[in-house]
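Appendix B, example 12.
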Amino acid sequence: MPFPAQISTTVVNPIDRRLYTVVPPIDSAEVPTAVSQMVALCRETEIYESLFRELFGGQPYDEHHAQHWLRRTQEGWAAGSHSFLQF
């Protein structure tokens, strides 16, 4: 069953107790802007070191990673699946 198109929820990060809002994936028309924003964000030192350095073997987070994640997010959301969280 697909997830509702317009749903959002707030979650608490169990490590630092920060609040985050989980929202549906973006519309495909917004992808080019989102890719460049994601690359910039995921290359920030703290984010890269904690999430991507080991996963990518020290290689930089690039457009391919962002495009892949956005595509999987859209597919997973449409399928009602959380599989988009996997690289």
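The mean pLDDT is 79. Residues 9-77 form one domain.
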